Amino acid sequence: MLPWLIVAATTLLLASIKSNTALTMARPGCRETCGNLTIPYPFGIGPGCYYKQGFDVSCEDNRTFMPNSSSRIQMYNINLLGGQVQVSTLIASKCNYTNGESTDGWVSVFTTPFFTLSSKANRLTAIGCNTVAFLGGYNKHRAQTGCVSLCLDKRSVDFSGQCSGMGCCQTAIAPSLGSLNITFDKGFNNYVVNDFNPCSYAFVAEQDWFRFEASYLQDKKLTDKYKDGVPSVFDWVAGNQPCDEAVKNISSYACISRNSQCFNSPNATGYLCSCSVGFQGNPYLADGCQGPQLSRIHFFTLHLKLTVH
Question: Which pick of 54, 115, 173, 192 has the fewest CB atoms within 10 Å?
Answer without folding.
Answer: 192
